[in-house]
Amino acid sequence: MDNANYADKLKDLLVTTARQNASDIHLAVGRHPTLRVDGALMPLQKEPITTPEVAEGLVFGLLTPEQKELFLKQRQLDFAYSFEDKARFRGSVYFQRGYVAASLRLIPSRIRTLEELNLPPIIHDFSKLSQGFILVVGPAGHGKSTTLAAILDEINHSRSDHIITIEDPVEYLFTQDKCIVSQREVGTDTPTFHAALRTVLRQDPDVIMIGEMRDAISFSTAMTAAETGHLVFSTLHTNSASQTIDRIIDSFQAEQQGQVISQLASTLVAIISERLLPRISGGRVPAVEIMIANPAIRNLIRERKIYQIDLVIETSLQEGMITLNRSLATLIKNKEVSLENAELYSLNPSELRIFLERL
């Protein structure tokens, strides 16, 4: 198969991904090209098993010459790929058992609103803030970037601010409205993640979005920016608000943790924890835990009684907080998700059953 044929095959696969409303497509040697639809893997049985030659041809067709050189040197690469101005993908190419493989995440061309994403109305309030630190957390592939894009786009259409994003790679593309939106891609617009973080406060931002919290430097930059009058958003791969706070504190050396706890208690505004569950009627629907840093939460952080935060969330429903189990129970009651699937995503299935008895 020559390069033209690989290009045609790649085009067919990407079009199929979009038409099937898949979230991802996987290319791996010894397997059919495989889509992820509503959270489940679905091999394209009509496509031939991928050979090493075909995998290499398809993957190299996604990369620029510079990206190909970097990939062969580093043996892995994250990048964004625009397909004929019709669709955009976040790609990750890598080697497994010596063979080239790829995972491509389809990024919708239109940024959906919080209502369209079925997210709680309280999240609108976070787009109205002028400063603070807000995290969207959860497992990979459960809507964190999509939620952040919706919040940022709401700011874009309602305020005259300078939004700076630092992403690896850039995912959603914003059409500038009332805001100036500066989207910086690691490797293209800045040499490294840390280089962008070091200079972001010199670029006169009002709102900063850091694609992912990676280490103590990321956390420190985010909290310092929030302290100095900026609104900062980011994501983290954790399962709950309390686990997130522990992760942030534990990423610092013991002698730094006192200062970090004080910074976190004063700058943290909210943590949104998401899961996307298969909907009974098709598609996926979010279950959400929301923690808002009220005086009780801030005090628990200062005293490092993080284990008590879940109780505060549960007893603060009137303030807009919600536990993951309460969110799951509501989805079950409304016949949007099955009990079996809800239990798979619950951190405490026995407590979930108690909620269901009360509703």
Structure report:
This protein has 359 residues and is of the alpha/beta class. It has two domains: 3-107, Beta-Lactamase (2-Layer Sandwich), CATH 3.30.450; 121-322, Rossmann fold (3-Layer(aba) Sandwich), CATH 3.40.50.300. It is built from 13 helices and 13 strands. It has a seven-stranded mixed sheet, with helices on both faces. Helix 6 crosses helix 8 (257-267), helix 8 (257-267) runs antiparallel to helix 9 (295-302) and helix 11 packs across helix 13.
Supply database-style keywords.
359 residues; alpha/beta; Beta-Lactamase; Rossmann fold; 2 domains; 7-stranded mixed sheet; 6-stranded antiparallel sheet; 13 helices; 37% helix
What's this model, at a glance?
A hairpin with a 2-residue loop joins strand 2 (34-37) and strand 3. The chain is an alpha/beta fold.
Question: Can you write the helix and strand succession as a string?
Answer: HEEEHHEEEEHEEHEHEHHEEHHHHH
Q: How many domain modules?
A: 2
Globally, the shape reads globular
Question: What fold name goes in the CATH topology slot of the largest domain?
Answer: Rossmann fold
The biggest beta sheet reads: 7 strands, mixed
Kindly state the percentage of residues in helix: 25-40%
Unreliable segments (pLDDT under 50, ≥5 consecutive)? none
Note the total helix count: 13
Count of β-strands: 13
Report mean pLDDT, rounded to a whole number.
Answer: 95
As a whole number of angstroms, the C-alpha radius of gyration is 21 Å
* CATH architecture heading of the largest domain: 3-Layer(aba) Sandwich
Main CATH class of the largest domain: Alpha Beta
Strand order of the largest sheet: 9-8-10-11-7-12-13
The portion of residues forming beta strands comes to: 15-25%
User: Looking at this structure, what is the CATH superfamily of the largest domain?
Assistant: P-loop containing nucleotide triphosphate hydrolases
Give the termini distance in whole angstroms. Answer: 60 Å
| SS-derived structural category | alpha/beta
